[in-house]
Design brief:
104 residues, alpha+beta, Aminopeptidase, five-stranded mixed β-sheet, 24% helix, 30% strand, transferase, Acyl_CoA_acyltransferase, Acetyltransferase, GNAT_YJDJ
């Protein structure tokens, strides 16, 4: 299964073209993305979400994008894989909007 990059999301489809898994993110700026949600269709392997997370982290690193994380599954995954260079963010950190919401 191939990862497809789309506008603010990466996803994987089944052989029949149905959505198998996806990860969505919100660009706060040209240099900051917030991972919002991961989804895996029931009956599909959770490894698909892990592949999507790793793919998005690789994309961000290649383009010098800082990732912030709201999605609970992604937070747990990254906590178990500390080698991933991602700055974790709690939902409470998004009390401001726009560029002000990027500062810690």
């Amino acid at each position: 299964m191939t990862i497809i990059e789309d506008h603010n999301r990466d996803y994987i489809t089944t052989e029949t073209g149905d959505l198998a898994a996806e990860i969505t993110y919100i660009p706060l700026s040209d240099r900051v993305w917030v991972i919002e949600h991961t989804f895996v269709r029931p009956g599909q392997s959770l490894d698909l979400s892990d592949r999507l997370i790793n793919h998005l982290v690789l994309q961000a690193n290649q383009h010098h994008i800082q990732l912030k994380v709201l999605d609970p599954y992604t937070k747990r995954f990254l906590a178990k894989h500390p080698e991933s260079p991602v700055d974790l963010w709690s939902p409470a950190a998004l009390t401001k909007s726009g560029k002000e919401g990027v500062s810690k």
